[in-house]
Write a structure and sequence with these properties.
2 domains; 9 helices; about 300 residues; elongated; binds ribose-5-phosphate; about 30% helix; Rossmann fold; six-stranded parallel beta sheet; alpha/beta
Length: about 300
C-alpha cells in the first residue's frame, strides 16, 4: 500500500502511512500565477503508484481542493492505466495495472448542502460525491455531516469517525460529567461520546435563522455544577456553541468545553468562542489552532473497511 497527498492533508497522510506501515509520497500540487492549479505524479513515484494499492488523502474544502482532488485522482489513474506518454517523448505508454485506488477525505466540503432545502438548489454534497466516485474504487469520509447523502454512490463509501479518539482525549484532559448535543443532527455523535466516557447526555433543538444566527428551544438540563462538553461535527462561526454555552451557564454549569471533528473556525470564531467556553477540542481534519486529536486512526479504519470488503 502507498499513501499519497497533495497540498491539503500531508500531515494526516504521513500519520496514516505510519499507522498502516507503508510509505507516504507527496504529489505535486501548486498554483499558476492566475490561480489555476498544476497537478502531477512525480517521476519518482510512478512505479510505486503502479505497483501499489494507493490511498489519496485529500479534502474537498476549500473549493480549490475539489479540483485538486479530482485532478490528482485523474493523474493517478493515468499512471495506473499506463497512460504515460508526454509531448517531450520522455514517457512511454505501458500496460495498465490492476492495483486499487482509494480516497480518504478528512473534511468533505459542501456536506451541509445535503438536501434541496429550496427549489432550484443543487444538492452539492451529492454532486461532488458523484464526481469523485467515478475516479476511484472507494471513498472513506470522516465524520460526514449527514452520511445518507453519499449512501448510494456508484462506488463504495465508508463513514469513519474520530469521535472515539475525541472521547479518549476528553476523558483524559477534561473529564466531563455531561455531554450535550447542540442540535438533533449531532445526537448520534455526541451520545456515542457520552456512552464511551460514561457520563450524562442531553441535546438541544436548534433553529437556524441565518448563517450567523441560531436559536435553541428552552430546555431544562441537569447541569448544575457540572463540567459539560458540547460535541458537534463541525464548528464554523461558533454561533451554535456560544448559544448552547449560554444556556448551560444559565443553568449552573461549572465549566463548558466544545469538541468537534472539523474546526472551520470562520470569521473570528476562535476569539468569539474564547469568551463563551473554557476550551475547544478539534481534530486535525482541517489545519486549525485547536487541533489536538489525530484523524488518521479513524481514516485508516475507514480504508481498512473498504479494502477488506
Ligand atoms: C450544523 O447542523 C452543524 O452540525 C453545525 O452545528 C454547524 O455547522 C455549526 O455552525 P456554526 O459554528 O456556524 O454555528
Amino acid at each position: 500500500m502507498l499513501v499519497v497527498s497533495g497540498s491539503s492533508c500531508k500531515h494526516i497522510a504521513e500519520d496514516m502511512a505510519q499507522i498502516l506501515g507503508c510509505e507516504h509520497h507527496s504529489l505535486e500540487a501548486r498554483r499558476f500565477p492566475d490561480s489555476e492549479g498544476y497537478f502531477r505524479v512525480p517521476e519518482s513515484s510512478i512505479q510505486k503508484i503502479r505497483s501499489s494499492t494507493v490511498v489519496l488523502v485529500s479534502n474537498t474544502f476549500p473549493d480549490t481542493c475539489i479540483i485538486e482532488t479530482l485532478m490528482l485522482l485523474e493523474a493517478i489513474n493515468d499512471v495506473k492505466e499506463g497512460r504515460l506518454a508526454d509531448i517531450r517523448g520522455k514517457g512511454i505508454d505501458c500496460e495498465p495495472t490492476k492495483s486499487g485506488l482509494y480516497l480518504a477525505i478528512p473534511y468533505f466540503g459542501y456536506s451541509r448542502q445535503d438536501k434541496r432545502f429550496n427549489q432550484g438548489e443543487a444538492i452539492s454534497a451529492r454532486s461532488i460525491g458523484m464526481l469523485l466516485s467515478t475516479k476511484c474504487d472507494g471513498i472513506t469520509v470522516l465524520d460526514l455531516h449527514a452520511p445518507e447523502v453519499l449512501e448510494s454512490l456508484p462506488t463504495k463509501v465508508t463513514f469513519s469517525s474520530s469521535m472515539s479518539e475525541i472521547a479518549e482525549y476528553l476523558q483524559e484532559e477534561i473529564n466531563p460529567d455531561f455531554i450535550l448535543s447542540p442540535d438533533k443532527g449531532a445526537i448520534e455523535r455526541a451520545s456515542y461520546v457520552a456512552k464511551k466516557i460514561d457520563c450524562k447526555f442531553s441535546y438541544l433543538e436548534k433553529t437556524r435563522i441565518d448563517a450567523h444566527n441560531i436559536v435553541h428551544k428552552a430546555k431544562n438540563l441537569d447541569v448544575n455544577g457540572a463540567v459539560v462538553t458540547i460535541v458537534d461535527d463541525m464548528i464554523s462561526t461558533g454561533g451554535t456553541i456560544c448559544r448552547a454555552s449560554e444556556a448551560l451557564r444559565e443553568q449552573g454549569a461549572k465549566a463548558v468545553y466544545a469538541a468537534c471533528s472539523h474546526g472551520l473556525f470562520t470569521g473570528g470564531a476562535i476569539s468569539k468562542l474564547d469568551k463563551y467556553v473554557d476550551g475547544v477540542v478539534a481534530s486535525d481534519s482541517l489545519k486549525n489552532p485547536r487541533s489536538v486529536v489525530s484523524s488518521a486512526f479513524a481514516l485508516c479504519r475507514g480504508i481498512e473497511e473498504l479494502i477488506n470488503d
